[in-house]
Write a structure and sequence with these properties.
- 3 copies of one chain form a homotrimer.
- In chain A, the strands form 2 sheets. Chain A has a 5-stranded antiparallel β-sheet with strand order 1-8-3-5-6, covered by helices on one side. Chain A has a 3-stranded antiparallel β-sheet with strand order 2-7-4, sandwiched between helices.
- The first copy, chain A, has one domain: Sandwich (Jelly Rolls).
- In chain A, strand 5 and strand 6 form a beta hairpin.
- In chain A, 26% of the residues lie in helices and 37% in strands.
- Chain A starts with a strand and ends with a strand.
- Chain A has 3 helices and 8 strands.
- Chain A is elongated and about 50 Å long.
- Chain A is α+β, with helices and mostly antiparallel strands.
- Chains in contact: A-B, A-C, B-C.
- The interface between A and C is medium-sized, with 33 and 31 residues.
């Protein structure tokens, strides 16, 4: 079974904390021990796990990604969003988190982020939960 | 069980669309619902999921990766391919895609790419399919 | 079940080969065929699979990552380690390796590395092994 989460981004580049939504999917699955897989069905977005406490951290990551993957003059793709495709492949469109006692086993500072690189858009996150 | 796909790259840097080969492995496994894992057993290659429609997108990603990870004067590894090892760790050597009704659950624009960073070479892709 | 490995880094940036520790966890699990998942519960560290033969390769990867993700003047996070958070999201905090006949199915040159980007610290690696 695949659960879908809707995410609406409001900026071109934005990290949206989806930890709570993913935990709801885990809770509703009734799986106590296993793995939660997160897949992004888009090519100008990504998913990452990083600090959830200080919002400046993800702002800084976005700043760094924009320096790392600027809009290059050499780009040939006509839509003008190749920088976003590059960021998607660098950060990655899938991850997985362990489930223990019905809870996502994240580190103290970890949160799960949907990464928008070509917003604003209505996006989707796919989740699959496998029992151990 | 592990299924192997052979990939022959023809350039130093090249993205090769392997979606069809991975789907054949899924179809032959007879698994209707589950997860398809893709592992690259090489250290100067990678696997990514990105746009499959316009071939300019992967050309642009390769252009960006070459700017991002140039051959640096400080590199010490004697084989002269450290830039390729860097790209491999940035893009990553493993991913997974959900299977629904015997089909890879990819987004409309998504395709699976073998990423060659030190070709041309004969390469191998390992696939494992787990039933839900 | 989740197995934990302790890793003690001794530098700010360091790749520590944990292949042997992960293989011990696989052996002790008695799982012959399946998947070994590796999760890093930290936000300034990562996990990667890359060359284990020549130690110059990981030195070169660290050199490249430091150029790629420098400490930027624009960074706002007060702890001063945003460069490490960026590297964590670029390299990624989770990976998985296939298990065949009780052994990690790595390529000839592949090793599993814990990636420290904000050491020295006492760190933890989480492992989950799923039978096929």
């Amino acid at each position: 079974m695949v659960t879908k989460i809707s995410v609406n981004s409001t900026k071109k580049d934005e990290f949206i904390n989806i930890t709570r939504d993913v935990q709801i999917a885990v809770t509703e699955s009734n799986v106590k021990h296993g793995i939660c897989y997160i897949h992004i069905p888009h090519t100008t977005a990504a998913v990452t796990v990083n600090e959830g406490a200080d919002p400046d951290v993800v702002t800084d990551i976005l700043t760094a990604l924009n320096k790392l993957s600027p809009q290059l003059r050499e780009f040939r793709h006509m839509e003008g969003n190749s920088d976003a495709h590059v960021k998607s492949s660098l950060v990655g469109i899938s991850t997985s988190v362990f489930i223990e006692n019905g809870t996502l086993l994240l580190g103290t500072w970890q949160a799960i982020y949907f990464c928008e690189f070509d917003g604003p858009r209505n996006r989707s996150v796919q989740i699959k939960i496998i029992e151990e």
